[in-house]
Specification:
Helix content: 40-55%
CATH class: Alpha Beta
Number of domains: 1
Structural class: alpha/beta
Number of strands: 7
Radius of gyration: 18 Å
Order of helices and strands: EHEHHEHHEHHEHHEE
CATH topology: Rossmann fold
Shape: globular
CATH superfamily: P-loop containing nucleotide triphosphate hydrolases
CATH architecture: 3-Layer(aba) Sandwich
Bound molecules: thymidine-5'-diphosphate
Length: 258
């Protein structure tokens, strides 16, 4: 079975940057990796992304219920066409920039749709495909939104985060602070309910430090270690860099294609 890791967090939490770093680090070490970005990845998902973020209808809005169905439709398509097959692969790390917990945090806690209905939609869309590890980049919304403002005005180098929201298409960033506070506390509740799946990290910490914690968490996972040790590239080496207390992983052999 593949190892499935999702990244979650509010606007400006740095999760896309960290997800991108994880993908590159794994690929550089020859670990087969697949990256998914929600909503997106499939054709339908990309269309839905444009619909939600692009506001092609001027000042008209999407109802909260319709928004839930749009995100769920994108996810259902992704799971049925891509994820349900990929999770069966014996040696693959799937890295998701947002997954089902975003819907609970944004549509459930943020939009205040009934949590049991959000849960039903999620169960239908995911067919039970859930991450092994979910990394929450937790930030106070006011600080994180300020960071987003700087990203968008070009004052802050957000790296290759793949953000799609140019000025004028900031559907969620334009929500009041109270909305973002509800999203944050929703995430923290989810993490507390399932501590074995979640790792909460301080998203305001330095980027390199956050990544060190992520890398440690991934390389310490039983499933990851088993995947690496059982791989054909049998020169797998897992070493502990005692000086820096960082877990370094290196794997020699051919770099597989994506
Ligand atoms: P994106 O550009 O991916 O933003 P970010 O860089 O913050 O991930 O846009 C996705 C937006 O959609 C983001 O504001 C969160 C929101 N969202 C939901 O409200 N529900 C969901 O189920 C998902 C996947 C995303």
């Amino acid at each position: 079975m593949a190892l499935f890791i999702s990244f979650e967090g509010g606007e400006g939490s740095g999760k896309s940057t960290q997800a991108g770093r994880l993908v590159r680090t794994l690929e550089d070490r020859g670990v087969p990796t697949h990256f998914i970005h929600e909503p997106g990845t499939t054709k339908l998902g990309l269309h839905i992304r444009e619909l939600i973020k692009g506001r092609p209808w001027g000042k008209d809005t999407i109802s909260h219920e319709a928004e839930l169905f749009l995100f769920s439709a994108a996810r259902a398509d992704l799971v049925s066409k891509v994820l349900s097959k990929q999770v069966e692969e014996p040696r693959l790390v799937i890295v998701a920039d947002r997954y089902v917990d975003s819907t609970v945090a944004y549509q459930g806690y943020g939009r205040r749709l009934p949590l049991d209905l959000v849960d039903s939609a999620n169960r239908l869309a995911t067919r039970g495909v859930m991450p092994d590890l979910t990394l929450l980049l937790d930030c106070p919304p006011a600080d994180a939104l300020e960071r987003v403002g700087k990203v968008q005005s070009g004052l802050f180098d957000g790296g290759e985060s793949g953000r799609m929201d140019d000025a004028g298409t900031r559907r969620f960033e334009d929500e009041p602070l109270a909305f973002h506070r509800r999203v944050r506390s929703g995430y923290l509740k989810l993490a507390a309910l399932e501590p074995e799946r979640w790792l909460v990290l301080d998203g305001m910490n330095e980027e390199d430090k956050v990544f060190d914690s992520i890398w440690q968490a991934v390389t310490r996972m039983e499933k990851f270690r088993a995947m690496v040790e059982d791989s054909d590239a049998s020169d797998a080496i897992l070493t502990q860099d005692e000086e820096s207390e960082r877990t370094l992983f290196s794997l020699s052999g051919n770099r597989p294609g994506r």
